[in-house]
Design a protein that fits this description.
- The chain has 445 residues and is an alpha/beta fold.
- The protein is built from 14 helices and 17 strands.
- The longest helix has 15 residues.
Length: 445
């Protein structure tokens, strides 16, 4: 199948070809005709499946097929959970629509609102926005959503996890009743189903990957290590294997800062990206990381959501996420668009229960590699993971800022490992100076 068979205009096909794409991905092959039909859509797709083009291409086709004259209203609204994702989506809209007479705009917080207000005075056919800043404009009466024809909720599961449900409902109340609704989500939780039931009218349902299924092209590994030695192990792995373009996940903002600072002292170029960074700093870090100038990017889950880098080779879970589904999102940053990737997790005794939950979710055991010299001390006991961090702190951990809150406002946790002797929970030391690949013992299997 080629893009030419999907009903897209020559202008759009020209832009797609110039970006080097010839065949649609499974989500694109199914979503594009569904959107062009004019009906609502509920689509389940992991990151890296090409879902952004799956809605931007038919959205551009539908709007360009029915042009409006005079001062064009905002005809399409795309809501995203993060600034980075908004920038990524709007860039796709501009690239794919470069030969069309349509104008797009991205809108998010953390930057001066006045240039956005000025841009809204001109033509904006397609608005890509984060919910909070959009409501700021609504309050100031600088944006008119009364003629929106197409609404897209991108990564709806993440928006709900970030507590945006009330903002989304406020925005929905401002839109015309007659419109096309497209909802994209990596997972179909009960909350997503409830949102879809209230938003979508007899939607087409597309699910291109098994729910919560990790990409099979990603080689996953677990490295057992004591919490206090994670930084040293990460440094050794990066240097010994000559890793470049390494995306490292931490639970907290301060943890990302501290880890980046440590790596720089070890002559590994690193920067942190999280919600407390200015938009200019985040944009610079992403640009340097994408270009290969920056070796390591230390990120929290939310900040990394919009990172779209083709063939990203390495993702490292410096700390396992408290919510198992986030593991799938994290490692989905590599192994994208059919390329292979590696996902490594540095796991201390505190995180054994989190690892069990992840393996239950992905329905597979993750191979364990023991690096000589980093064998866990069996005398160390597990400590609860509170507020997104280990109580004992560990090297490179900071205070606060890392936990996720679902829409009811209470922290979600994966359940800390119970305090117990670690005597039978660690892998045996490697022999002959080489890493050993085996399973954790005593993990209830």
């Amino acid at each position: 199948m080629s893009f030419a068979t999907l009903g897209l205009s020559d202008a759009i096909l020209r832009a797609v070809t110039e970006r080097g794409y010839t065949e649609p991905t499974p989500i694109q092959a199914q979503a594009i005709p569904a959107v062009l039909s004019g009906g609502d859509l509920l689509a389940g797709a992991q990151t890296g499946t090409g879902k952004t083009a799956g809605f931007t291409l038919p959205l551009l086709q539908r709007l360009s097929a029915q042009p409006v004259s005079g001062k064009a209203p905002i005809r399409a609204l795309v809501l995203t959970p993060t600034r980075e994702l908004a920038a990524q989506v709007e860039e796709s809209v501009r690239e794919y629509g470069k030969y069309l007479p349509l104008k797009s705009m991205m809108m998010f917080g953390g930057v001066n609102i006045n240039p956005q207000i000025k841009q809204l005075h001109g033509r904006v056919d397609i608005l890509v926005a984060t919910p909070g800043r959009l409501l700021d404009h609504v309050q100031q009466k600088t944006v008119d959503l009364s003629r929106v024809e197409i609404l897209v909720l991108d990564e709806a599961d993440r928006m709900l996890d970030m507590g945006f449900i009330r903002d989304i409902k406020k925005i929905l109340a401002l839109l015309p009743a007659k419109r096309q609704n497209l909802l994209f989500s990596a997972t179909f939780s009960d909350e997503i189903k409830a949102l879809a039931d209230g938003l979508l009218n007899n939607p087409a349902l597309i699910e291109v990957a098994r729910r919560n299924q990790a990409n099979e092209l990603i080689e996953q590994r677990v490295y057992p290590v004591d919490r206090e030695r994670k930084r040293a192990l990460l440094t050794q792995l990066i240097k010994d294997n000559n890793w470049f373009q390494v995306l490292v996940f931490t639970r907290t903002k301060h943890g990302a800062n501290n880890l980046a600072e440590y790596l720089n002292k070890e002559s590994i170029s690193a920067m942190a990206i999280h919600g407390n960074k200015s938009q200019a700093a985040r944009t610079r870090a992403l640009a340097e990381f994408k270009s290969g100038k920056l070796q390591v990017l230390c990120a929290t889950d939310i900040a990394a959501r919009g990172i779209d880098i083709s063939e990203l080779p390495h993702v490292v879970n410096y700390e396992l996420p408290n919510v198992a589904e986030d593991y799938v999102h994290r490692i989905g940053r590599t192994g994208r668009a059919g390329s292979e990737g590696e996902a490594s997790s540095l796991v201390c005794i505190d995180e054994h229960q989190l690892l069990k939950g992840i393996e239950r979710l992905i329905k597979r055991e993750i191979p364990v590699v023991q690096i000589p010299g980093f064998e866990p001390d069996p005398r160390i006991k597990a400590e609860p993971i509170l507020n997104g961090q280990n109580r004992g702190g560990g090297q490179g951990r900071g205070q606060g800022g890392g936990q996720r809150r679902p829409q009811n406002g209470t922290p979600r946790t994966g359940g800390p490992a119970p305090a117990r002797s670690g005597g039978n929970t660690h892998a045996k030391p490697a022999t002959a100076g080489k890493p050993a690949v085996h399973r954790f013992g005593g993990r209830g299997r």
